[in-house]
Amino acid sequence: MTLVWEEPENDGGAEITGYCFEKREESRTSWVGVGSVRGNVTSNTIKHLYEGNSYYFRVMAENSVGTSEHAETAVAAQAKCPYDPPSVPKNLKITEASGSEISISWNEPAKDGGSAITNYIIERRKVKGFSPRWQRHNRRSVISTNYTMTDVIANADYEIRIACESAGGISQYTPALAVTAKEPFSKFLYFSFTPIGGFKCQDHKGLKFKVV
Known about the structure:
The protein is mainly β. It contains no helices and 15 strands. The strands form 4 sheets. Strands 2, 3, 5, 6 and 7 form a 5-stranded antiparallel beta sheet that branches. Strands 10, 11, 13, 14 and 15 form a 5-stranded antiparallel beta sheet that branches. The model is unreliable at 186-193 (pLDDT under 50).
């Protein structure tokens, strides 16, 4: 939270050497010192406040003679993040799935809440099992809009969801996508036919054709 003030009308005959600050939670009666700045500075950012709590602040001028009376804020100010959480990432989809890996992609959220996206959180869970809990998959920050999981179990059924993160917080998660870690279906056609001459044949292993 940033405080701004004006220099005193009267410096008491000695140059202003600095300003000191104190804070008080609205629910408390005691004041706590929160720092000081040089005499040529007329603003200061107060850190280490609890979000959601309301505070009063006061500032005092200092010179070689002593400290002035304090100037206090008239109303309590609530500490809150200046940014909003981003909206949900868009268009999550499976781009590739096999028995050894699953790849996904998505689009950036429609709104970033006023602060740049710093990470995408990717979660996965097995549909079947003793503990089908959501588990975070990426331990490092992901800023691209695609991701590949290489530790899947062949033929296992998974659900995947993502959220995005910024200075304003974490977005809601996307709806979960279901996917099975298995090789895609063959692109060849499999069927039986009766050729000219009346001899019927059927290849149970699958007869492969190429259309030319």
